[in-house]
Amino acid sequence: MLVELRAHGYSGVTFANVAERAGTSRAVLYRRFPTRARLVVDALSESLVLNELRTAGPLRDDLRAFLGRIGELGRHFGPDVSRELLGDADNTALRTLLSPSRHSVQLDLEAIVDAARQRGELGPGGIPSMVLTAPVWLLRSQALDLTITDQMIDELVDNIALPLYQAHSADVSHE
């Protein structure tokens, strides 16, 4: 399905083409995916499962690698696919796309932060969930308008993530 999306964009994904490529029938696809948006969201959700998380440090490198993996979809498909999919998706499709990744992203970022604390790069103060995940949501919002670049990820890490994490972890009054 992702091959179809890359080749033809969101509006060019058809059940007929996906069924032919997958060696199945349109009826089988329609039983599982009542809309094109749900078909695409399912494929994208599966590809959002990030590979094994590595926290080798330093924090900047871990964050850059993590956000870079999230930004890969934006690089592959560009902002047009993101906008078309959001415009076509119903609530179920949106929950499918966002909910599982939100939990995984939170856990992965907590692991990155914990490893940085153990290396002495961050203080003991708590980092609120909204602060922890803010760089991811900013990256996702950028993907609606721009193609994600390495420079964009560097700026997000250097100007948003690191200063936020350092400020909150240094302030133990938030606990």
State the helical fraction.
Answer: over 70%
For this structure, the CATH topology is: Tetracycline Repressor, domain 2
Provide the CATH architecture.
Orthogonal Bundle
Kindly estimate the percentage of residues that lie in beta strands according to DSSP: under 5%
Q: Could you name the CATH class?
A: Mainly Alpha
**Low-pLDDT windows of residues:** none
What is the CA-CA span between the terminal residues?
A: 45 Å
Overall mean pLDDT score?
86
Number of domains: 1
Order of helices and strands: HHHHHHHH
Q: Count the DSSP helices.
A: 8
Number of strands: 0
Task: Write down the Rg.
Answer: 18 Å
Structural class category = mainly alpha
Overall form: elongated
Largest sheet geometry: none
Plain-language structure description:
- The chain is mostly helical and 175 residues long.
- The protein has one domain (47-174): Tetracycline Repressor, domain 2 (Orthogonal Bundle).
- It has eight helices and no strands.
- The protein has helices at residues 2-8, 15-22, 26-32, 36-48, 59-88, 91-118, 129-143, 150-170.
- Helix 5 (59-88) packs across helix 7.
- The mean pLDDT is 86.
